Every structure is written in C-alpha cells, then in structure tokens.
Amino acid sequence: MRTFGLHHLMTGALLIGATGCGCLGAPVDVSCGEAKSAAIAAMTDADLRLSPTERGLARTGESLVIPAAAHADGAQGTTWRTDVVLTAVGRSPARVRLELLERGRANPDPRGIDLEIPGGTVTVLDDVLATAFGVEGAAALRIHCLEGTLGATSRTYNLQGSDPLNSPTFGQFLPALSMDDAILFGDQGRLLQLAHDPTLAQGQRTNLLLANGGDRPTTVSVALGDDTGASLGEITETLEAWEYRQLDKVFERVTGAAVPGGYAAVEVTTAGGRIFALASVVDNLTGDPVAVPSVLRSSRESTNLTETQLVPAVARVSGFADTDWSTDLVLHGLVGPVASAQVTLLPRDQENTEPESVFIQLPEGQSLRAQDVLAELFETDGAAALWVTTYGGGMAVTSRTFNRLGEGNAAGLPAGATFGPYMGPIPFTRAFRSGDQAWITHLSHDPSLATGSRSNLGLVSGSLDDIDIEVALYRGDGTHLGSFVETLRQWENIQINRVFERVTSTPVDSGYAVVRTLSSNGRFWAYGSVVDNRTGDPITIDAIGVRRPLPAGVIASADMAFRLFEAGLEVGRGVGQLPGPGLGEMLGVARSARPGWATRTGAGIPFDPGSGVALGRSGFARGRRGVEDLPGVGGGRPP
User: How many of the other CB atoms lie within 10 Å of CB of 305?
Assistant: First the structure.
C-alpha cells in the first residue's frame, strides 16, 4: 500500500490519501467493509416502454445535432473545415435528412438535403458546409433519421495547406448529440478544462458554441469562473428558434486577464427551453482544437448514489514519430459543500486485481487540474485507464492527452505548442455486454504512414473473468476485411495500434469496426483513435452503441433505476451502484416517495405503477417491476 501525506495540489483541492487495498470505496473515514457496493438489477414480468438514447445513434423518427461545423478562416491564420460521416448501422438502409442551422438567425424551417445510405455502408461528406450546402462560415447541423438506424460523427479541423486531401491537419472530434444531451430548463451544464491567453502568442483560447434545440426563443445564462472557483463574470444570450451562435474568445467578455484554467456554467432560464452547449479550446500555436461537451449537473442538491466513470486512456509515454504524450486530467466539484472522488489506476496490458487509488475532495465550483496525471497522482509512467468513482454524484471529470513540442521540432512550430485529443469519461452503466455491438466509425488507414491517417482501437474489460472480444473490420462500402479475437483479463485495457493492418495491407479510405464480446458474462468499453500521419494529431472516436434487443418488460438495470428515480426520487442522474448499506436506505426512500406503487420486501422493492407513469426525459413504464439487491451481478464493479 502506498500512502500520500495530506497536501494541496492547488487552491481548494485536497488529496486525502492513496491505497492499494483494491476496494473502490468511499472517503477515508469509511471502512472498506462499509464501502462495498451492491449492484442494482431491475426486472419485470409485464410490459415496459423505455427507449434510452445513444449519443451518435438515431433510429427511425429520432434526431441528432452536430453542434458546430465550419468552412471559414479563423484567428491566428487558421482555416477551418468539417467532415461528416454517416453510417447505416445494420443491414437495412437509412434514409436521412441533413439540415443546416445557420449562425446568428432563427432556423424554423432550415434548408436540407435528403440522403439514402445502403445498409452497412458509409457516406462521407467532406467539407460538408461547402459541398452539401454551398455556404461559408459556421453553422450547426440537424440530422433526422427518417427510416432505419443511423450513426453520425464529425471532425472539424484546421487545414495547414491549400490541398484539402493532402495537407496536414489539426482537428477535433465533434459528437452528434441526442436530444437527451441538451441542457434543459432547471438543469445546468458545466464546460470544463477551459483556458484563455489574451496575447494569443501562447497557451489556448476558448470559443463557446451554443445551439437552440427547440422552436421557441430561449435565453441562456453563462457564468464564467476559474479553477479556484472564483467568479469572473456572467453573460446572457437569447437564441432564436434553432439558432446557432458562436462566442469567440468567450473569456474576453468578462476579463482582460489570462485564465490558465477555467469553466463555464450554462443554465437555461426559459421554461421549456433546450440548449446544446460545447466549448472549443484551441492551442494558439498549433491551431489544434479540442471539443469539450457539457457535463450535466442536476438541479438536485443531494443524492444517495455513487457514480463510476471510465477514462479509457491516459498516458505518460513516448510515441510514434518522436512524440511525447501526457494526460491533463481535471476534476471539478459539481455539488457541495464538498465533493469526494476516488481515482483508480488500471495500467495497460495487465490484469488489474489490486489497483492503486487516490481519494480527492473538492469544494463546489473548484477544480483539481493534474497536468501530468500519472506523474502527479501516481508517480508512474506508461499508459493506463482510470476509474473515477464520485460520491454523492458531486464531481465531474474531463481529460486531454497531448504532445508538447520542444525546441527545433520537426514541425517547425514554436516550443511549447501542443496538440492532442479530448477524451471524455464513459459512465460505468454504458458498458457493452453480450449481445451488444460497439460501432466505431470515421476510421481510415494509409499504410505508408506518410499521408492520410492511421487508426488505433482501444478496449477496456469490465469483467471479473477473462473475456473474448471480437473485432470485425469493414470498408465504407460494407466489404468485410476480416475479423480477429482478443482475450482480455480481469479489468485489463489494451490499445491495438494500426488496427487495419491486422486484416489488410491496402489503404482504407473510410472504414469502421464492429466490436462485440463472445463471452456470456462479458462487459467492455471501446474507442477509436484516428491520427493524422503528417502532424501526429489524433482524435478520439466515441463508440456508437447498438444494444441487444430487450425482451418485452426487461430493461438494463441502471437505466431502469435511473428512470424510476428521476421520476421523483431524490437521487442523481448517474445510477449504477449504491454504497452499502445505502441500498436498503434507498429502498425505504422509494417506498416513502411512491407509497401508491412501491412496497418493501426482504429481497428488494417491487414497483407497480399500474396503468403507467412518465419516467424522466424520455421514458414511460407500466406494469410491475422490481429493484433487488444482487451483489456482483453482471461481472461486478471495478476491483
């Protein structure tokens, strides 16, 4: 066991201690026995109507929003372009309408184009604003899936030359957001890991991207602060119906000083309003951007739950073409007065049965920023994944893995210039299980490594046993290039570099991977990394989840509990585990909150809403269902 003494990493951020006991527990004044958690399993013997959304995936009648796209010149001599990749997921074709949400105006009836994509194939819209709509400037995009199942991704990049096909690029992955990703009236979105240097000669600058997700004018309040929690000022914007707005160098609206680390708190003040918010943080020396999605903070002030999130890749390692990678991790207190979290290290390429952890506490509104997280928190190097378990649902996490250039670098850029991708956390509850598929699109590979891009694939096991994971690789026209199987040990994580070279020696201009577990008890997470061969700049591609069909009346446990609780129980958004003996306490609260259809039994609590009840944002349930205490179900929690 390794233990840190008490010390401040920065103002207001207190590192409590570190332990190798292997128990993902609670703050240090709680014993390991008390910190053991019980999984929630939800079952039903009747009808159920729940359809949880997936970021980047739209089924018939559903819509997605790409919150920013560009064909424009920007600050510091940058040239911005956006490519969109649309994939018909599965064997059936997808009919799609792509619509333009123009900047600075209402878009009640936006112009659009209709596309039909054959099943299992990819349509790539390079420089989408120019080629699909013939416009310049910046905009957002709305995507309607008229029929079938659609996966959507985008990349906005800074073009370093005049040839869009052969010039070096620095870019950012921009997710296609579902309606559930919007900030609603009564909730708050936090944008973290922001920065601004007003000289534009070093450091970074932050642009704020807002899109109205509804048919009415909506007012939004944006409070800007720094990592110490100090308020820098507040701005208010009113967006017309489906308007897109971009606030460049947003910190200059409230201060003339440098902001080495900061955040934005975005609130919708119009009843019934819906806003998509995203930050683009741009390196002033390379023009490399990272897109930071908002972290939703519920208006509830307290919760009984823990939430576990996975940061699937962090690094302190040398890479291809003389790159040196490190990871900047930010933890931010969402609810107070003090938020607690445990960060657990899972080194790459090994079984992780007794991992090392550190405990952290933060006051509300303050951030801990570990600019080289493996060195600062764990005194190690290499590559790894991190589990971040928060108590009371009160802490958010973001990360960026980057390469910092030195003097005389091959790119000819100033010393201190950086590039590298944002990597957001994945909730524990979004693991892929037996019968699920993880579709990773927007991939390509040029085996010369001199032009184009190369693609890497990351896999993280969430199981207590060895599991087999199958990776099937395809060209964009649906041609199956080949498949292979990887066996992962308990809580192991790996990265397969140049993954297409496992199945082909030829270039792949546009391709995708379909990843699934062959083990009945398997649980895993997956991501893609696409690297520009000329600059070495990567983007992280989120996996699009195609979940196994659920029999009538059966729903994944955490999502079921989440929807039930969001209907009125005083708990938070992220539901997956409860710290014992909190399960029994929660069941008692449930009975009190829903006396008409919640009763207590020895094994758990059955819910019987009778003819029906609305559940949260997008669910409706009826019939009888239950929440039971089943420790260790589905492979268990992190070790």
Answer: 24
